[in-house]
Amino acid sequence: MMNNMAAASTLSVGQTTTREFLLLVQDSATTRRKRVLKLLLVMFVPVVVLVLQCALTMSASTTRKANTHATELAITSSVQVGEVVTRLQRERGMTSLFLGSKKSSLEEQNQTTLPLDKLFSIVLCSVPRKKRILFVNSNSEAWNNLVKLRTASDQGIGAVVLWPGTASDPVEMQSPTVLQSALRSHRIERSVSPTSISEVFWYTKFIGSILGLINRDIRLSGDTKGELWRNLFALELFFNAKENLGIQRALGSAIFTKGYGTPIEHNTFNDCSFKSQTFLQLCFSHSQRSRAVYSNATADKQAVVDLLDSMRQVLLKKPKGVPSVSTALAWFGNMTTFIDLISGIEVDLVKTIRSHLDFQIQRATTDFTQSLAFLVLVAAGCPPLCIWYFRSVSQINGTIAKSAHVLASQTKTLAMEKRRGERLLHRMLPPFIADSLKRGDHVLPEFFEAVTVFFSDIVGFTKIAARSTPLQTVTLLNSLWSKFDGELDAHDVYKVETIGDAYMVVSGLPRRNGINHGREIAALSLDLLDIVKEFEIFHLPGEFLKIRIGLHTGPVLAGVVGRKMPRYCLFGNTIRLAEWIEQTGL
């Protein structure tokens, strides 16, 4: 289709240019100069289009490069804010553990054996010492570790350079300073004893607002398709999975520390357990590299994964027993180890995304450079080309002017002859069939269910011809058939042929007219009878013609027969019956 459109456009431009050349010799010198300028304008239009195309490409490349830089900044901001989220998740977990440890004394835990302790052995966290969480065996140490984690959270917030908050966000999310102030104003004192679930919910809502900023930046980044978008979406899914794992860490620590859990704590834990698995699997489905990173990270830590699965199953069954800080510590520590292990997924995703962004920046830079080079080439090459074109037009203008008159006259004559030939052809064949044959199409036979056929001849024509010369006979037939032909335009009929004194007309083909074909032929028959009544044989004064008419309605097959002299012929019993009725009529 595009090739046809291009060919049609080229033909149109060529016809316009030819028409302008032909008009050059028919106008005055001033008008001729204007037409030359119009020809030059035809030359300048493609140049302008090329310049505009280059400019648009450069603009698109610049925009794409700017968007890519914005995406890169958003990813950098997400990494920085993601570190803040990680520290707040640890602070949430330690807060829950601290509040739970206040409800049971260390002496009670040493004197009582909880069935949960028999199920699990405490697996120490195998993480670097600088990242290892200090585990507690008393409420005092829990408070000290909570203070250290609060300090780490404050330092993480202070280290954020690119904060994703805007003026339309909630007040506490608009800047790191306001965020830190809101966090400090909420933090509990050592002497205050709110429920652990209320603190978990507050921290979860607080962290969820921060994750909302990260997810929003991720959604606004990329091209919404391709490998870059899949990795961006996988990163968002991983952040959500990590948050749900952090909530499990906090709630599980509180439940183990108290020895029981409230219905809302269990429901929240079950919900987060399902969500964390779902988000991780969705992350893996969007990034196969993330699945490989997860497998490699947990390959030599399978004992930690198995222990966490066992402890998670106990938590899902709503355990009730004696409080056990040691079991809570095992859960808290191993969950922290697991979260730190899978954090390599985030690092790998960020690295992959940045490599895609670097490629896009490089491609945008290349496109901009190529467009600029092409624009310079066009700007440098067009003036000499235009000058050469102007001189060439001036030189050939004289030659074209000499032959323009002859060409215009021949073109007009050819057009007249063409119209005359088309009129003659349309008289011999139906117009749509004639047009099909001119295009070289094969015309298939067509079946018509209901057609009325008119067949007539002159009564006693043989005797009249014997009393007339050949010229008088031909003149007689031509005069009569001409009058008949003149009457056809007033009716919806089609003249098939005349053979000698036979005259054949049909209605209902080649254009179907419903049930009107009989009425049209009957009306035509009456009109032709009126013509014959008044038709006097000019070389036999006082003698008038008489005709017989046969009409019949029925199915007809119509088609084009022959190639050198194609005829539109009708076949079927309907034709023969109409002729038989005419021959046997009065």
Describe the protein.
- With 586 residues, the protein is of the alpha+beta class.
- The protein has helices at 2-24, 29-101, 106-111, 115-119, 139-158, 176-186, 196-219, 226-258, 263-286, 288-298, 302-316, 325-428, 431-439, 461-466, 470-488, 517-533, 573-584; strands at residues 446-458, 494-499, 502-507, 547-561, 567-571.
- It has a five-stranded antiparallel sheet with strand order 2-3-1-4-5.
- Strand 2 (494-499) and strand 3 (502-507) form a beta hairpin.
- Helix 2 (29-101) runs antiparallel to helix 12, helix 9 crosses helix 10 and helix 10 (288-298) runs antiparallel to helix 12.
For the record, give the distance between the C-alpha atoms at the N and C termini, rounded to a whole number. Answer: 62 Å
Q: Average pLDDT, to the nearest integer?
A: 77
Count of strand segments: 5
Shape call: elongated
Write the element-wise H/E pattern from the N-terminal end onward.
Answer: HHHHHHHHHHHHHEHHEEHEEH
Spatial sequence of strands, sheet with the most strands: 2-3-1-4-5
Query: Structural class of the secondary structure composition?
Result: alpha+beta
Number of helices: 17
The proportion of strand residues reads: 5-15%
Give the fraction of residues assigned to helices: over 70%
Q: List segments where confidence is low: pLDDT < 50 over at least 5 consecutive residues.
A: 1-14, 105-137
Characterize the largest beta sheet: strand count, sense, and whether it forms a barrel: 5 strands, antiparallel
Radius of gyration: 48 Å
Keywords: Glycoprotein, Lyase, Membrane, Nucleotide-binding, Transmembrane, Transmembrane helix
Subcellular location: Membrane
GO molecular function, one term: adenylate cyclase activity
GO cellular component, one term: plasma membrane
